[in-house]
């Protein structure tokens, strides 16, 4: 057997159909990294049934399907086919060529085919088991996995050794046998339990069956006597009912006549009452209208009083305006006097101004004469001044020298000041820098606080995220819970519906009839009563109680259908059932007119259920004379009132029977057949409500997800702000450093300025000494200048005298001019006062006209107000007259009402007499009806008892049972039979059939138990045989592997020694396997101390030993020699060639030494991104291309 071909399509990087053919010897697959070489070994491992996604270098199984490239679309499935030559029939298949195919779709579906036929994965495993190609075999060594043989734990190495020893199939069969043995033991335990239970039941059931047979004999005789006595009582009750019906008809006629008379009187009373009410209402209306007229009259009088008040106020206001007008006229006379005085004052001031102008002209002439004298004196002064200027010129030269020295000294002093200013500036700048540094530090602290705050915000967002996640989880849990509850309700409803469909809870006879009807053997079967009537949930229990056993009665079309069903039950020995033919059943409906007013009354039972119209007689027959009450107290009160004439049931299932007996107690909810229908409806409604809540919860879940996404976005925003704040803090740290450096530089500048200041101070002292010398020379020159100044001073005195006179005249001239200017301003002020007075006279004139108009208006308003007051007074008189008319008419209507009330009193007296007579007749009628109901109930109870006890109608009973001739003797015999039956105690009628069934089942289960015990013994024998065979074969093959490993190790390593050892020789099939090696010249105590290449070479030696003992038909080796050096690669490849006689090798490699030994070379390239392509080269062509000499003959 060898590998013929491999077909890949859609697997990983091979989207196109790719076929690789393999021949004997070595086939090498080469190509650059990432080209898809290892995907070929993955494909072989995958088609052989590999299920570990990790072993296939993926994250999920879908990853094996070609995922697409930028230019190619993804594929929908991956398929790999492996064809094996089976001409030697190494595989247990008749075909000489076996093709295994595996296909996987993106939807998750997977299929396996063997020779075109679809098979299971287990079939693939079993096919290749013990061939080295199995699931735990060594046919495919993936990339980087060779060293795991050495590095694995001793217990984990067993799988590959067991595959090589050929015991994998035995282990599989043993595991299957152990699984079957465990299942057999479980079955045996259950069978023994059942058998013990059946053994405990057989004995008691036998005794119960014998007692049941005795009971049936006595019960049949009791039935005959009871039915005969009941038929006798039915005849008696029928006669009593006929007599009571006649009396009842007479009483009803008289009661109806009294009721008609009473209705006529009541209508008359009602008419009189309505007329009286109308008269009273009219009187009340007229009184109200009179009161309204009186009110309107009062309002008119009040309005007239208001108008009189308005007229008086207008008169008072007019008097005030007249007084103001008089004051205005007096003020005008005063203004005329003031204007004349101002005109006189203006004339006087103008005359004084003319005199001042004449004085001004004379003073100006004097000033001009004094000016001419002063000019002559000025010429003398200029001559004296010229002499003084010469002296001062010399003094100025000396002064310049002094000034130069002083200037230089001042310059130096100024430089000192500048240095001081510069130093102050530097100090200011340094302080500013220090302030800025402090500010930067503060901002840095703030920025760090901001960073911390944002860190807290991020943490807060994280907490909010956690809260939102918790809320989302809560909503998801709520969705799950609602989904579960809705599923439970729907499942419960479906289960009850299935029970209803299968008639669970019905009698065996009812089930037989309905099922036979469904098969078409019986016709006219309409169904059990409980399925034809439906009741709301709130009254379901009451209806269930009212129906009792009648719920299982079967409704049929006619009597013939009922007889056919009864004959069927007789033939089938299926028990007894009650049938209600639609053609014969007649119902009676209780008169609910008087009952309806009772407290706690709910309704007649037949009116509380729903049904098809054709079943009305059935419903009224079973429920028409049963009343439903709210609770037991209401039921008892109602029953007492109507003297226990009919049956009453409560909503919780308690019952007050006709005649006064009470039936009740606890009741299991939903246990009844009618309740089951209501329960199904309720559960379906709850399921719908829960589905709606589930939709709301899913919407809340979506909102929670959206909220979580929003919080996550907020958290991301906060993290962004935090990053920006950190950047700002970093910038502030840089600014802090810069300001600190600036402060240091300014301090250095201040120190250099201080040195310059000291130099300038020294220079200033020298220049000041030079200025002192020049100052002494200037003192002599100043004495000469002093003499010249005295001469100049004499000239100055004369000039000053002239100047004083001129200044005096100039001052007088200035004073005259100021007085002239003041006079002009006084004239202007008087003119302005005259103009203002004229304007005030005009305003007063206009105000006088306004006051006159206001007086006229107020006079008109007073006149109009008095006219309105007179009109309102007249209107009030008219309204009072109308009010008096309304009061008189209201008195008339009140009299009419009193007359009607007197008539109503008389009519009511007659009505009470009729009502009393009617009440007496009603009591008599009720007594008669109660008597009739009692008789009817007794009759119905006998009929019902006849049916309920023996499922006989009266006609059937008359046909089947003979009349009782001597009722007294029959009653005595019946009491004896009852005593005998009671002496039997509790009787299990089902024990007869149950005993027969249990006995048959016991015999069957005993046979089954014996068979299972024999199977268990056979399985234990098989397991012991397999274990012994596995132990012997594994020990033999392990010794062979150990020997081959020792020799191959020496051959590959060129010396040294190696051996394998079982960790527990006593437990050959369960212990671990240790590997011991000693390369040439080394002592190795632990395999981990070997280099990577040595570990790989040890694993290769062991791998070759396994192949020696049990050659695999073909092996796929994926770069297992990657860790070897060139010399060891050549040894590896050479030994691989030696094994080609028994094994076909497909090697994936990068190493030249391995390629040299290959017979066929496949090159894998990736010309298109993500798509692998194959190139086939035979050895000769490869040699030629690489320029190598052929080394093999």
From TrEMBL:
Keywords noted in UniProt: ATP-binding, Coiled coil, Cytoplasm, DNA-binding, Nucleotide-binding
Main location: cytoplasm
Record-listed ATP binding positions: 32-39
Region (Disordered): 315-338
Family classification: Belongs to the SMC family.
Function (record text): Required for chromosome condensation and partitioning.
Quaternary organization: Homodimer.
Protein name (database record): Chromosome partition protein Smc
